[in-house]
Amino acid sequence: MAIEVRIPTILRGYTGGAKQVTGTGSTLGELITDLDSRHHGLADRLTDGGGLRRFVNVYLNDEDVRFLDGLDTPVKDGDTVTVLPAVAGGARPPAAAR
Amino acid sequence: MRYENLLDAMGNTPLVGLPRLSPSAEVRLWAKLEDRNPTGSVKDRAAFFMVAQAEKDGLLSPGATILEPTSGNTGISLAMVASLRGYRLVVVMPENTSAERRALLRMYGAEIIGSPAAGGSNEAVRVAKRLAEQNPGWVMLYQYGNEANARAHYETTGPEILADLPEITHFVAGLGTTGTLMGVGRYLREHKPGTSIVAAEPRYGELVYGLRNVDEGFVPELYDPSVLTTRFSVSSGDALRRTRELVAAEGIFAGISSGAALHAGLAMAAKAVAGGERADIVVLMADGGWKYLSTGAYEGTLADAEARLEGQLWA
Question: Tell me, which fold does domain A3-85 have in CATH?
């Protein structure tokens, strides 16, 4: 069983630089625990006291999990989970590396 | 239609059916065309309401200075409103800005202060807040936290939509300051309980998120997640693809965030079809495609267009 998890730049120190890792679990919470077993410390950057940390957004197949079942959201083989930091809205034109 | 002046001509924008993009007669998509506003974007509503509220609160007198971190539509809208109402406008925006945006802002009489590009949007907000402290007489309207932003949509956009489409089942819009979704969302949930309120959040390229710390992110003060029922993350590739489909299938020339909103709208439409339910889905098109032409979004291959958007905040 493989669930693809996309990791933002800021957290790739935990994955040895990998932008994508795979894991297993039947819920998002289990998946994070599974990832943490190989990428120690990752879970603590994502969760805090049983919930997602405030400035972390997690999407299951592009849907924000806070509008599904949070950490209890079921996940299955073939799903894609994306982790992103929260950013401000508003258009900006071309920029050099931020 | 006749109006006494340009500001009176704001809002009351068309709701246009999308017969070719709608999956069936029972599941229909509708576009609310916000480019039909005085400066060509949905932000005209927020800008007008924020300035009007500041006037009511006695914060603005003739010749007063308004300050705002923005180089996008809000800056342009505020520049127009400030100019017509007799105020000075200072905008704070990242240093490397396109020629069109600078020209538009200067044309309306705005003054531009650059913030370091490397700091992105969070940095522009920080610089603006510092300037506000240093200049106590200046008024920072602060679109990310100003209730008049959301209220503009509660009082105008939401009622327009329900009046035009009483059978609405879903409202879909881009998520930025969150003003549109909070205002329209609250209005529709009060007056038509059960309406789905769906956010389309732009998912930018890696360069944009960069080394942004997950512990010090930014969530607009206006944001109340309980108003939403669903929030989608939409990639630039999907947003571009849908923006082009809008032109090709329906003849609508909209900005890239409109493509993102359409992508989320189509996802909701597919769910309705799969569930055998009828749906009337309103997708808000925040602006026209003019300001994005130079990004090459509307020509060449999709892959090239996507590559050109890499590193840009396109919504």
Answer: Ubiquitin-like (UB roll) (3.10.20)
